[in-house]
Amino acid sequence: MTVGAVEFLTNQHRDVERMWDSLQQSRSETQAREIVALLSQHDAIETTLLYPELRDTGEQGMRVSQHSLEEHQQVRELLKAADGKDPSDPAVFATLSECVAAVQHHVQEEEGEIFPLLRQACDENRLLELGEKMAAMMSTAPTHPHPSMPDNQMGAKVAGAVAGVVDRARDAMSGSDRPGS
Question: Within a domain: residue 181?
């Protein structure tokens, strides 16, 4: 069943929340890898599809897109610092905690301001089309953070596709069971 862009991204937000709740109890490396992978894929999808769509809505869309991309950069850097490290290490767990707190703040802004703006600017067919593109992109989006990823649509699309291939090869060689691998 096809879901629209807002539902697709909201479902991922809830998935990250559930994964984080579980990781706080288990400190499992597998769960940490899954969170890093999902947040990396989510970042690539929003950078490539959501924010360009918002920029097309006008001044408010440009403003919230730029602000969101700045928040994404912070998350990418925090994810990079924790990627592949043992979450039972207090310093690594603290980095993941800071990252998830930044993500939770960003999610509140998206769900409170960005998603209503997107719904106002796009008809249901466009939201469904974007949702389909987002779902399809999950199989090619990077599974590791890339802080140097361009924030423009074309740069993110090209660099993200290359990074996704490299990440999946890296995951296969390491035996990782990351989502989308």
Answer: no
What pLDDT is attached to residue 147? 84
CA distances 145 to 81, 135, 140, 163, 168, Å, are 9, 19, 14, 9, 13
Q: At residue 74, does pLDDT exceed 80?
A: yes
**Residue 130 scores a pLDDT above 80:** yes
d(CA 70, CA 151): 9
Q: How many domains does the chain have?
A: 1
Element (H, E) at 37: helix 29-45
Question: Residue 176 has what pLDDT?
Answer: 65
The b-or-e profile of 104-132 (16+ CB within 10 A means b, else e) is eebbeebeeebbebbeebbeeeebbbbbe
Cβ pair 41, 145 in contact under 8 A: no
This prediction's pTM: 0.86
Answer whether 146's CB lies under 8 Å from 121's CB.
Answer: no
* In a domain? residue 180: no
**Domain of 12?**
5-174
Structure tokens at 12: 């991922």
